[in-house]
Amino acid sequence: MDFFEVAHTQRAMRRLKTDPVSDEDLWKILHTATMAPSGGNRQPWNFIVVRDEEKKRKIGAWYLDAWDKSYGPARETMQADPQMKKVFDSADHLANHIAEAPVLIFATIQRDMPTSGPSLLLGASIYPAVQNLMLAARAIGLGTALTTLHRLHEAEVKELLGIPDGVETMAMIPVGW
Question: Does the pLDDT of residue 160 top 90, yes or no?
Answer without folding.
Answer: yes
